[in-house]
């Protein structure tokens, strides 16, 4: 160890909201533990946020208050710029870039920033001999970035999957347990403060899509490509589908799946069915889960709190201690300058599908549906027809493995038969 | 990066059995991937095992064959000594010590060695400015050492739990699914090659106890103290108890629990009941699971293959890439020279208990049992008495939370009532 390695590591923290205040609390509470584990003291030297006068439930009096994030990023008083503001443009982006240029390492919890600008930031970091760490950006307290970047370094990764937006999983599991429709539970979640200011980030699958893009880049050693993630939110998941899927032994989850195929990199974040008794199926409420499959290790499952002050701050501290210990990792597990952009492929890996539709009360209706599926090359594994309640009969179909194209084709053809009422619903059944 | 950091990292591998051959295969298969991730090539320069002529299903022709582990450990051709022989004395210990003295870093999968001599080895490594890494030593492919040492560095750890011997979990889950007695499944496991040469290491809980001692040292920042682990194997778990526990909503697992209490460090590896629907309860076959609870992160659950060629070699490769990247961590997360031996405490944390006994067909028998429990200060949560089949009536009791001392006392008193037949069985119900 050189002398510099036993000097305090000086942090500048920009953003003192849920995560920022959580980080300050851990550093204050565990100063001795952190010093013992890091081999040197961890010191906060300067902080900033929008409102200097806001009461933040932590004592900030011994830290310098920087005028703004940019000033903090370039301050001589800090070694590491800790970006906990959020947003993929504006202050977060500018200050992060400025910090790297000024020779500071960066720690961030900002998945939006990384999903949109991760590759350029990684290159900028490399050009300046700096590191960017972001354990908190994906799945909160779960050590998924470290696991993928380090623990699985001896594996070719086959597939990464995850339930990574706690709010969506809360909404889906609450709909099922309380038997409530989407709109009601969405309103509940809003009132409980579970939703982002712009709720589409959560329920539209965008936040989870950001996280998937980050995991893909590490898993497959490819340039970040968030725009190529096929994203579908949970807005069209109905309580009906949740109940019917449960009848058939499945749960509906907003599931991210990334895998490299011969056609290119598939990245998809969408509501999927998973077996009710699988680890993913059993996930309740705001808990997150990431499943990684490697050629040597097989399947690894990681589970924990995906958000909240303590878990997210815990992940930030993992990065802090890592840098304090002198560990310097390439941003996405390999030098960014060597990464190529993977061919992006739409999902083509075959899977079983769940199809729900309503049959009109007409003779031969079911036969017509079956023949559309047959013509599309889809064979039926299981089918249930319920009674004609209001004149239409709900029908549930679980198909054998088939391609998304075949399903799209069948879904487009079905209304033309004239024997179904309303739009058919189709959901992929992911093998987990 | 200095020039030395882009030179190949030269490994000497001692032990070419299941794990050693697995490591060689990964290095041969993934040379490019490993170089990209490590920033430098990974090279095997020399190897050794007992029998040079044995066919090992890998091409070793380009590596120097060292005469013995000690010669390999001291060879000028290697930077890292990879110990994959096993055993806590003899060649593994001597060569590991020699490697550290000769200025080599060490990677090992040997939990026995670490549990018995980890503290001295960590001090020896520090004195020589070397590192010892051992991801493969606990829970195979699951990245538990890295998670505890690095990812949770911002947490005071409250409790660590784990099912960490796949053979025991295989035996227990197979007993349940096939309805077979312990002895039969034990024989099956032996024939399948699942048992160590000395099976007490597995079924006696010793192997899992080694792993728990390693996790405790990291979790609580204390000197390794394997001798203080309270160990009980699965030999006395009967198919009866497995079935009865299932009736009450529980599974029986060989569960390790370490927690720091006001009285000292409790470390226990023993058959316990866990709720059937908890992540631990749902664990089937050889899969391992580790649950860590930290003050900031809450509960983290890690699950994966606990043994086998691929998963274990994957963990070894995590250490290889870590060292290749220039990462240098203190053996148990803090400098060993600063660690204190924790006061060892026998388990005193209260828990609910499962008690099974057989009542003689005598009037007032159950009342006598209840009064023994009451006198011991134990209150009953749930009780089931089954019919008098062969003259005795099985009785199952789930107690409210009580202390192990109270249970021990009651178990000692029960036979004195003269109303029970045979020995009562008692198992702890761990809150998970
Ligand atoms: N909350 C979680 O559970 C969680 C989990 C994982 C990742 N994250 C990520 O962590 C980051 C922070 O999240 P959060 O929940 O802590 O957000 P938050 O509670 O809204 O806090 C944001 C903080 O940033 C400050 N800030 C925002 N814009 C600023 C600007 N232009 N200049 C200076 N300060 C500015 C705010 O200042 P004022 O307080 O003065 O308004 C506030 O202190 C985000 O990237 C988020 O995606 C959060
Ligand atoms: N197998 C697993 O799934 C697993 C999982 C986690 C940890 N581990 C640990 O990994 C280590 C290796 O396990 P393994 O399953 O690979 O064992 P293994 O298949 O029995 O292989 C042991 C190897 O070590 C060599 N060896 C033993 N004693 C030696 C000596 N005195 N001098 C030179 N070579 C010697 C043997 O040589 P020969 O081949 O010539 O006999 C053999 O190649 C152990 O510490 C074990 O606890 C294993």
UniProtKB/TrEMBL annotation, chains A, B:
Pfam families: ACT (PF01842), Homoserine_dh (PF00742), NAD_binding_3 (PF03447)
Keywords: Amino-acid biosynthesis, Methionine biosynthesis, Oxidoreductase, Threonine biosynthesis
InterPro entries: ACT-like_dom_sf, ACT_dom, Asp/hSer_DH_NAD-bd, HDH, HDH_cat, NAD(P)-bd_dom_sf
EC number(s) on file: 1.1.1.3
Coiled-coil parts of chain: none
Keyword Amino-acid biosynthesis carried by entry: yes
Residues covered by the ACT domain: 354-432
GO molecular function, one term: homoserine dehydrogenase activity
Pathway(s) this gene product operates in, as recorded in its UniProt entry: Amino-acid biosynthesis; L-methionine biosynthesis via de novo pathway; L-homoserine from L-aspartate: step 3/3; Amino-acid biosynthesis; L-threonine biosynthesis; L-threonine from L-aspartate: step 3/5
Source organism, top-level taxon: Bacteria
Keyword Oxidoreductase: yes
Catalytic class of the enzyme: oxidoreductase
Family: Belongs to the homoserine dehydrogenase family.
Record protein name field: Homoserine dehydrogenase
Organism listed in the record: Paracoccus pacificus
């Amino acid at each position: 160890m050189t002398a510099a390695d036993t000097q305090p590591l000086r942090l500048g923290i920009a953003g003192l909201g849920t995560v920022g205040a959580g980080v300050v609390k851990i550093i204050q509470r565990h100063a001795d533990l952190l010093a013992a584990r890091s081999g040197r003291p961890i010191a906060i030297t300067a902080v900033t946020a929008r409102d200097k006068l806001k009461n933040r439930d932590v004592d900030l009096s011994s830290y310098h208050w920087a005028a703004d994030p940019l000033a903090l990023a370039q301050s001589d008083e800090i070694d590491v710029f800790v970006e906990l503001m959020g947003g993929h443009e504006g202050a977060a982006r500018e200050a992060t870039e400025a910090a790297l240029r000024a020779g500071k390492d960066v720690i961030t919890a900002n998945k939006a920033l990384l999903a949109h600008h991760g590759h350029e930031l990684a290159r900028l970091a490399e050009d300046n001999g700096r590191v960017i760490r972001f354990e908190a950006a994906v799945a909160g307290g779960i050590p998924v970035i470290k696991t993928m970047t380090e623990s699985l370094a001896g594996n070719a990764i086959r597939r990464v999957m995850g339930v990574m937006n706690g709010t969506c999983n809360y909404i889906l599991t609450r709909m099922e347990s309380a038997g409530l429709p989407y709109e009601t539970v969405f309103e509940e979640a809003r009132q409980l403060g579970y939703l982002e200011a712009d709720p589409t980030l959560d329920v539209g699958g965008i936040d989870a899509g950001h996280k998937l893009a980050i995991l893909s880049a590490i898993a497959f050693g490819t340039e970040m490509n968030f725009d190529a993630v096929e994203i579908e939110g949970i807005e069209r998941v109905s309580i009906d589908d949740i109940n019917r899927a449960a009848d058939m032994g499945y749960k509906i989850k907003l599931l991210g799946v990334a895998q490299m195929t011969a056609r290119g990199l598939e990245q998809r974040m969408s509501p999927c069915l998973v077996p009710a008794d699988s680890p993913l199926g059993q996930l309740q409420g705001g808990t997150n889960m990431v499943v990684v499959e490697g050629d040597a290790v097989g399947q690894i499952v990681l589970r924990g709190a995906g958000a909240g002050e303590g878990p997210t701050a815990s992940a930030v501290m993992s990065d802090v201690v890592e840098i304090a210990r002198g560990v310097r990792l390439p941003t996405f597990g390999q030098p960014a300058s060597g990464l190529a952009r993977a061919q992006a492929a739409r999902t083509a890996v075959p899977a079983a599908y769940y199809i729900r539709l309503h049959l009109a009360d007409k003779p031969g209706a079911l036969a017509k549906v079956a023949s559309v599926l047959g013509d599309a090359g889809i064979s039926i594994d299981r089918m249930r027809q319920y009674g004609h309640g209001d004149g239409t009969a709900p029908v549930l179909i679980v198909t054998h493995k088939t391609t998304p194209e075949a399903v799209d084709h069948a879904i487009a053809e079905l209304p033309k038969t004239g024997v179904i009422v309303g739009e058919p619903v189709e959901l992929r059944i992911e093998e987990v």
